[in-house]
Amino acid sequence: MRYEDIIPFYQKLNYKCPKDKYGEGFSCGKNKEEAKKNFETEQKLKAEKQKGVDERRGKRAEKVSSKAEKRIAKIKDPILLENVKDVRSLIDKAKSELASGKVSKETYKELRLAVDKLKTTKSNNIKDSNNIPRDELDATTSNMVKAANDTSPENELLANMARDALRKKGLDINGKKIQPNSKVEKFKNLKIQYNEISQKVNDRKKLDTLGSELMEIKTSAKEKYKNKSFDNSVSSMASGETWNSESIGDIYIDSVSKNDITITSNGLTETYKKEELSKILKDAGKISKSYDAEDTKLINNKQKEISLAYSEMQNNREELSNIKEEIINTAYDAHVVSSEKKDYIINGKNKIKATIHEFDDGVVIYSPDNPKNQVYDVKEVYGILSLMPDTLRSNVSRINIVDGKSKDDEYWSNKLNVNFKSAGSAGDDNINLYSSSSEKKKLTTQLIAHESGHTDDNVGWDYYSDGTEWNSAMKNDKKGFITDYAKLHKSNHEDYADSVEMFINQPDLMKVSYPNRYDILDKHYNSGLPLNRDKPSSMQARINADKKSRKSK
Question: What is the DSSP secondary structure assignment for residue 354, as one 8-state letter?
Fold first, then answer.
């Protein structure tokens, strides 16, 4: 099934109004005044929505900055203090942006990456806040336990130091291993397994190498008997050889006796009298010798290797599927921080009752209470999101599970002359998932990957896929748009989202078919390199370009 058959909707920035409507900016109306009013209303709603996004990002930036400053205060090592400079400059940058109203997505990402790098940097010279070297605490566990349980006032400082040292070793004050949150640990282990097996499943080097070796053996073996005539075919046959008939195909000679020959052809093994087999082969067309016994043995052994490698890959795929389901079922409980009932507005006007689920990675999911339609399960939504690469997932801060259809369904139904039902839409760092029927639909990784791709592509009013690098990759791949869906809409935005979907679900196919686009996404998602965006254009420039485009139609 094609992706476009599953996911019929995407967010389109430059849309056109129906013929009987007047267009103003990005809104339509019966006349110029109404269109302008609708545009202003949309801008107010967008501003309110963006304000909430900015506030959440600002709070997260403050929290990260506060933790970073506390960690920096404990560092005395000169080498580590050099690394701290980058973090401090980013903290100052975040605070400056916060004072002006919001923290940009780029600054927040840079800050998070810098702090994560600082966390993983180790040194034996680090001292605690009391300037007492850790080495002095690194005694035997029993001595630390004894000190940690000393309640005398004069030894309070030493007891606190001992408890801190034990905690850093993963031990409680009795020297017993602290049991971590089992759900979080289970999720981490599952993700490690998932990533390791994904690499095995997507790595076809072994199969490709074995396939190339088999072709070399066959080519070399066939050269021995090229253009040679075998008039007395049956009398020339020997055990272990492979022959070929124009109408029968390959014939493997199992055994040869004085009067009988046992052969295997098309999976069927039969024994014939030599005279009988000669008559059969005369009617079968030209008979030629393909491989002698030694070459046939080499070929059979190589085919067995290929079969084992393929079987191993199939087993890995099955294991990956099982781990994937387990991750989806585990992610929510491992990472949810809170769930709170609250009213919220969807589609710009409808206020509904919903539960807001907040997670420890900053993602917020709104799920409707008492929905009329069959909506996606919030645990499944977060579980599938957690399967995405970290670089892709970090662009999503909010997901709205909508009880109803998209407000743009009618527009696209008229434009495409079909009964259009949107499955999802995305923009900036938000994703909307729609449900417009009583029929329960299973959420797919294709949908989440596609919509997450939009959040990665779209920053403010600009799209990476409209830039030089992506256009050059599309041109060099020499196949145009990656899917019929993107081609139908002539949209680079959809090409990027569908490319992300293929990269997540069919990386081996994309690597062969669209190597230039694959290379960009591989560096971005697997190596963490940022996208090379062109200089962003202003909002007014985008609106002017859109108006010019409308006039030319």
Answer: E
